[in-house]
Structures are given as structure tokens and as C-alpha cells.
Design brief:
3 strands; mainly alpha; single chain; 10 helices; 237 residues; three-stranded antiparallel beta sheet
Length: 237
């Protein structure tokens, strides 16, 4: 193995490890990330750590601050609501176009991805969460590609915050994940039937269900934070 291959493998290892720690919550929102600490924790040089952080910044999982400082990204409630609404509009239109343009190969690929997701739902290990999140991203990506609209792809790239979606994936209950699988199965049927109205409506419902769950989670987090702030005052009375 040459030096370039070794460096690439180290960068991929650093990326996957740091990403998994962010997604699991081991690295908390707002936590400062330093190349020195991560290099020591992962027993890697700073170069692959730097490359991994660069990828995570592009995904929205890490934010750059002044200078070379980086931290785990946080997601304000109003921003999350905007992102999900934009995604709903764009993904619904994507599904509509895909219903008109999807090939037999696209349908077969979606069924394969769906089978993978079904085999790992509900997830019980870190590996299964990883498989599910990657398969879910791939499922939506295949539909977008089947839509055959380069401008739509560009808009989705701006609106689709991978970091936020991956970070919130773990809040879904087993029942939520089963419902999501049912949505995916119905989407495939709608695309195979070349029924644009059907596909658009199912995708819209799919996005709305996800947004409702995330909003409930954010409201619960805000309530817990308020209780934490007020509790010393209540205890002093």
C-alpha cells in the first residue's frame, strides 16, 4: 500500500469515527473540537483529522469559528423548521418527477435499499444505525437522480442538511421507523405505477411525519432547558 492510500484510509477512519461520535451524542452540540485532542484520541496524525473535519463541515455536522477553531454544530429550532419545510417541497416535487421518469433499474435499486433498511429496522447497535442512515440517504438520492432535474439537485444540495438529518435520526421510535419504511414502500409502488400525484403526496406525508417528530423533540429539549434554569430558583424559595 502506497503513502497516498494509507493517508486516504486514515482520513476515512477519522471521518467515520468522529461522525459516529457526533451522531451518538458522545460529542455534544457546541463542543469544541481540536485537532490535537482528536489526534491523540484516535491515534492518528493531524492531517487525516483535518481532512475529516473538512468533510464534516460540508455535511453540516461541524461548524468553523474564528481562526482554526471548530465545534460540533447545533440546530436552532426555527432553522430546523425551515429546513424540513424546504425539504418537503423539494422532495415532493422530486418524487413527482421521478414518477414520470424512473426506469426499471431505478425501481430495482430502491427495492434493494428498502430491503436493506427493513432488515436493520428497528436498529439495536451502532452498526445498524449507521447502515440505516446511509441507506436512507441513498434512497432519497436515487429518487432525486431519477427525477432527472439538475437544477433541483442543486437546490436540494443547498436545502438538505445532512448533519441535521443524521443527528435527528436517533430520536425516532421503533414505531416511527416502521411507518417510515411503509412510506418508502408506498413511494416505490407509486414510482413503479408512474403515478405523479400519488408519489408527491406520499413523499409530502413522509416529510411531514419526520418534521412533526423533530419538532416534538426540540420542544421537549427546550422545556427541559427551561426547567433546569428555573430549578435553582424554585429550590431557593
Amino acid at each position: 500500500m502506497n503513502d497516498a492510500s494509507q493517508r486516504m484510509n486514515a482520513a476515512e477512519l477519522a471521518y467515520r469515527t468522529i461522525r459516529a461520535r457526533i451522531v451518538s451524542g458522545e460529542l455534544a452540540e457546541g463542543e469544541r473540537l481540536t485537532e490535537k485532542r482528536l489526534s491523540k484520541d484516535l491515534s492518528l496524525s493531524r492531517t487525516p483529522i483535518r481532512e475529516a473535519i473538512g468533510r464534516l463541515v460540508l455535511e453540516g455536522l461541524v461548524e468553523r469559528q474564528s481562526g482554526y477553531t471548530t465545534k460540533v454544530a447545533s440546530f436552532p429550532e426555527d432553522e430546523v423548521e425551515q429546513i424540513f419545510e424546504l425539504r418537503r417541497l423539494l422532495e415532493a416535487y422530486s418524487a413527482r418527477r421521478a414518477a414520470l421518469n424512473a426506469s426499471n433499474e431505478d425501481i430495482a435499486m430502491l427495492r434493494d435499499i428498502h430491503a436493506t433498511m427493513r432488515a436493520h429496522t428497528p436498529p439495536r447497535t451502532e452498526e445498524e444505525y449507521q447502515v440505516l442512515t446511509e441507506a436512507n440517504e441513498q434512497f432519497h438520492r436515487v429518487i432525486l437522480q431519477a427525477a432527472g432535474a439538475p437544477r433541483l439537485t442543486a437546490l436540494m444540495t443547498l436545502a438538505f442538511d445532512v448533519g441535521m438529518v443524521v443527528r435527528t435520526y436517533r430520536i425516532f421510535s421503533d414505531k416511527d421507523l416502521q411507518r417510515s419504511l411503509q412510506h418508502h414502500a408506498e413511494l416505490i409502488d407509486a414510482l413503479e405505477a408512474h403515478a405523479p400525484d400519488w408519489a408527491e403526496n406520499v413523499m409530502s406525508a413522509h416529510m411531514l411525519a419526520g418534521a412533526a417528530k423533530v419538532n416534538d423533540w426540540l420542544e421537549a429539549k427546550s422545556a427541559a432547558a427551561r426547567d433546569l434554569i428555573q430549578s435553582p430558583i424554585s429550590g431557593a424559595e
